[in-house]
Amino acid sequence: MIAPFGIRLRSLMNKRGALCVGIDPHASLLSAWGLDDDARGLERFAMTCVEALAGQVAVLKPQSAFFERHGSAGVAVLERVVREAREAGALVITDAKRGDIGSTMTAYAQAYLDQSSPLATDALTVNPYLGYESLRPALDLAAAQRCGIFVLGLTSNPEAGQVQHAVGPQGGSVAAAIVAGVSADNAGCPDLGDVGLVVGATIGSAVTDLGIDLAASHAPLLAPGIGAQGAGAGELAKVFGAAVRNVLPSSSREVLGAGPSVTALQDAADRTLDACRAVLGEP
Ligand SMILES: O=C(O)c1cc(=O)[nH]c(=O)n1[C@@H]1O[C@H](COP(=O)(O)O)[C@@H](O)[C@H]1O
Q1: If you measure from the C-alpha of residue 40 to the centroid of ligand 1, how many angstroms do you get, rounded to a whole number?
Q2: In whole angstroms, what is the distance from residue 180 CA to residue 51 CA?
Q3: Is the ipTM of this complex over 0.90?
Q4: Where are the catalytic residues (predicted)?
Q5: All domains of the chain, ordered by start, with CATH?
Q6: Which candidate among 39, 61, 155, 210 keeps its CA 20 to 30 Å from the CA of 78?
């Protein structure tokens, strides 16, 4: 039987280095690559990313919205991207940030995590702000299918603190309550668990300010915000402190902007990985 997601992720981070490249086919990037903003351009763009990077980086993270905006033809491209990236040896996190009442969450979980679904992936980003327990159907199906879940914790957008830093009735922040839920689900894992957290590389001192112990959660820590949103590898040590070993830095636009040349994309990913390694150390 396939190993649980956290074990597969650690093993690939050790082998290929801790880097996730996001496949975010913005209209402006399609244009910069000389492609039309339609499903054919999308397919060319996304499959070039797969060709360049799926055999090289540990994780690829296609962002569903950029595929959905091309309708059913775009979703068909997403299916192909996820399938072929996995076949080429990368782990795939589908970034769809799903979140709904539990009964609907079951259907989202089946769409992405049931390994017989056309959209079957290794891990899914989810939004816990309907309450952590609303995610339970996805957490359960992920565990049964040896998949991962990445729960939004402290996101990289500037307005995130309005909700995530807010103090709840028990006196702790909303984000700390989400991290507590993740920690409970990963309890007993010796290293990385299957339930990750999304913590932006742009958030400065929020983790320490809110008294959050990320290392104790055993969560893989997906850290977007490297590059286009202004964070560099240098921010990682400051944001994550003792948890840096569990960080999976993520960059989309900065790497994608190097295309459409396959070798230029590979070099850009290598440069980002080298910069992160200088901070995170060798795995
Ligand atoms: O879940 C994410 O990946 C995510 C969380 C977050 O807090 N901030 C964030 O930017 N992202 C995603 O990361 C990608 C942005 O990457 P850049 O182009 O490198 O800025 C987009 O797909 C975002 O949806």
Answers
A1: 24
A2: 39
A3: yes
A4: 97 (proton donor)
A5: 5-275 (3.20.20.70)
A6: 155
CA distance 203 to 180: 19
- Between the CA of 247 and the centroid of ligand 1 the distance, in Å, is 15
Ligand 1 centroid – CA 229 distance (Å): 9
